[in-house]
């Protein structure tokens, strides 16, 4: 019989009791001083956020400008390096073409003859 009673209890539908809601205290309105402080705090927070946003945008623009300037500097340095290389190559060509034996050979080839009476020695001081 005890077994039969247990089965009957199991078969009975369970009734869920609604959870009791915690008692909330109803807030009364803020005093004028508290309202003024809340407004001031909201204005202050809004100002801080606005200044932060402006500074962030300014910082991003400065960084973008720096990146652009660095890119331009690197391009100019590459051009300078290339020009220095070209200048050194041209100087090597001038040195090679102005060797005494080459100039003498070209002069003889074009019919010029060396006359020692027309050559004067110059002392460089």
UniProtKB/TrEMBL annotation:
* Source taxon at top rank: Bacteria
Q: Name one GO biological process term.
A: cell division
Answer whether the UniProt record assigns the keyword Transmembrane to this protein. Answer: yes
Q: Which Pfam families match?
A: DivIC
Q: Which InterPro entries match?
A: Cell_div_FtsL, FtsL/DivIC
Q: How does it sit in the membrane?
A: Single-pass type II membrane protein
- Enumerate the residue ranges of region (Disordered): 1-32
Gene Ontology cellular component annotations, sorted alphabetically: plasma membrane
Principal subcellular localisation of the protein: membrane
Q: Does the keyword Cell cycle apply?
A: yes
What does the UniProt keyword field contain?
Cell cycle, Cell division, Cell membrane, Membrane, Transmembrane, Transmembrane helix
Where found in the cell? Cell membrane
Q: Which residues cross the membrane?
A: 43-61
**Regions of compositional bias (Basic and acidic residues) in chain numbering:** 8-23
Q: What is this protein called?
A: Cell division protein FtsL
Q: What is the lineage of its organism?
A: Bacteria, Bacillati, Bacillota, Bacilli, Bacillales
